[in-house]
Amino acid sequence: MAQRTLDQKLAILSDAAKYDASCASSGTTRRDSRSGGIGSAGGSGICHAYTPDGRCISLLKILMTNFCIYDCAYCINRVSSNVERARFSPEEVVKLTLEFYRRNMIEGLFLSSGIIRSPDQTMGDMVRIARMLRIEHGFKGYIHLKTIPDASPDLVAQAGLFADRLSVNVELPQDASLRQLAPEKRPETIRAAMADVRLGREAAKDRSHSGKRPPRFAPAGQSTQMIIGADAATDRDILTTSANLYSGYLLKRVYYSAFSPIPDASAALPLIKPPLMREHRLYQADWLMRFYGFDADEIGAAHPSGNLDLAIDPKLAWALANRAQFPVDVARAPREMLLRVPGFGTKTVTRLLAARRNGSVRYADLLRMGAIMSKAQPFVTLPDWTPGALTDSAGLRARYAPPPEQLSLF
Amino acid sequence: MIRVPLPRFARFDAWRAAARDLASARIPPEEVTWADLDTPPDLFGADPLPAPGDHSVTATQDFLQLARQVASHSDPERWSLLYTALIRAQSDRRYLTNPADPMLDRLTRLAKSVRRDIHKMHAFVRFHELPSDGPRRSFGAWFEPEHPILEAGTPFFAKRFADMDWLIATPEGTARFTGAGIAYDDPAPRPDLPDDANHILWQTYFANIFNPARIKTNAMRSEMPKKYWKNLPETRLIPDMLADAPRRVQAMRDAGATDAPAFAPRITARLRQQPDDSLPETLDQAATQAARCTRCDLCHAATQTVWGTGAPTAPLMIVGEAPGDHEDLQGKPFVGPAGQLLRRTMAEAHLPADRAWLTNAVKHFRFTPRGKRRMHQTPDRPHVEHCRWWLDLERRFTAPRLTVALGATAAFALTGNRKPLTPRRGTIEPAFDGGPVLITWHPSLILRLPPDRAPAALAELRADLTRAAELTA
Fold first, then answer.
1. Which range is least confidently modeled, A173-177, B28-32, B50-54?
2. Rg (CA), chain A
3. Domain for residue A239, yes or no?
4. What is this structure's pTM?
5. Is A60 part of the contact surface with chain B (CB cutoff 8 Å)?
6. Environment class of residue B269 by beta-carbon count within 10 Å: exposed (0-12), middle (13-18) or buried (19+)?
7. Which chain A residues in 276-295 lie under 8 Å from chain B, judged by CB atoms?
């Protein structure tokens, strides 16, 4: 086989990014290059470009190699696939990262890999790349390493010292599907790896007896990713799994990636159109759990099928299913209840509470503060607005759902 | 009319100084014209800035921060809006603290638009490498922001790219960095930026991370508006990528599944460990099998099976209820607060940890998530019954002379008796397999008891453990 050029390797090994939803580069320690090295990080990350599939590019997201000894049915790089294979040298990954970074195209590196020879060997190479960037080149940008779940805890501990974020993918929302579709992976080792990262982060926060702070460990936390639509799990199952993961491992994010057909697909999976709207609704529901005080079960219970309503957003669906709690008196309601009004975001509610201290809040004020009143109307009372019978009207859902479409006759 | 000229750079500071003087004389806003470089000269001439008055002028930090951002907006009215707000804030201290106020709303929107433009500058500036004769590498970029944000947007680059020389040219002016500070110059025509091989590599990356099966062009355009496209190397590929997407998806569909390469089954056969369902013959084998236990549904949410620890040949076995949060994360029993209390009490009872095998009736953590915490839940009867398989194996291989059951769940798992614990505490009952079981409190109960009752229960636990030590001496 002729030696591939860097360009050819990049084309093959950037393929992973196609199916990977996570790309965040926010929330790590604040640092910059004024005292040497290159790069800066901290605060909110920057998306440097967007692809026509609507996902942002914040990090150079590549595989170290797409050779893999595992056979996960949903993955294009599984051992039984006939995809073209390539492998970057660690120096090539470092060079690409730094040169793209200097041209202001990326915030840093998101490195993942197929598993070659053994999990430890693979993880060791990834750690070596992160070490070269940090130590040899003084790189202050963002590094996200996708941890290989079966790798030794020592390597994960080293990875946590160089990386801003570590992630371990749960891949599928239910253990049974993972055992079936990814027979070399084991749900219990995946969760144990997440527990190790959590414990590593907590240990790094304890000061020693002398008051010295231990080195930071994955300061931007850990995240995970689930593939949606490759198995039969309902949205309620998915959200329950997420709630367990958030509480158990203090994850920063769970990413939901709608299962896309892959070239050279395994016969075990259908070549379906990716359920993009379902993915979107799951992100909205996830948001409700993290910032609005909703339980996974509350959101999942809004529809008897256990799946989210695709036509309307989950907060509206919950409000329609729990109309007894509405309308809310905007002048008196506590923050927790205001957060449950469809059309009110967290920022709107914060502004609203500040405005309430200055006097009564009226309809036009709410509009100015960013409330989506077309949505909120049936659920609030104001000095100059009462919904009357609207809250309990039978046709309320129809006001929000997109108009019905004529089915094709052919 | 008073005409206040504002310079091209350091405009905000100039406005601030002038506004302070004007406000100190309480000059009303309608008597002031703020003149940018591109403001046409006043037809009727204008008065110069008067001397400062003797009123005091105050502004909150919030207002100054907001004003600094609004100053970078392209709206020609921004200066007079800010001055109007400043004058009003002198007589009304709470002015601009109400988010429902129309003036605050307008200023907030201007500031937001500026912040967004600055953010997009940080995102979409693309450096090209320039020839350099010194030790530092040199880069240049051309960028067309929506607002005059050059001064507000460039300090970010000085922090990020401190080890290289760079210049960012915009229609508003040019920022140049050579290691010390940033120097700002008047606008110059767009510089000739040399071709850069890394831009070609970047295009390769951009084209290959696009998934043709998912298209969301609205999402792309809302975050990467077209007005920025002309200076980005990657955006010129987008029309072709979109046009080719349906063909690629169809080709994928037509190709369907292929036969796996011949080596694949050999590799996976080596990796896939068949589940071992044979009856374990040693304690270690039982532990290995238990690590993959799926006998009940607790395994789906718990992290891992928490197997017993201690001395396998010890004469004493101590059985708790189920792992808690800490035990679940670490994979070891009795490491959380209740476990620490147990270990302390064992030491007080002269029962060293190496004289006992410590384990739980149920090997997986049971909980309900509550935000960022996991609330412990007592295992149900079916959980105990499923897990008794492992407890029985542990008992068979460790063959304890005496077992201590901590709490009701452990007592039920060992004896099958679900009666209330209080009358049974301190007594010895036979286990399923006939061995003696000494029943006592679970240390977590002692942690939950009110302070007037906890010491007595702790003394009872200590006495029971002391008795267990004596019985197995």
1. B50-54
2. 24
3. no
4. 0.93
5. yes
6. exposed
7. 276, 293
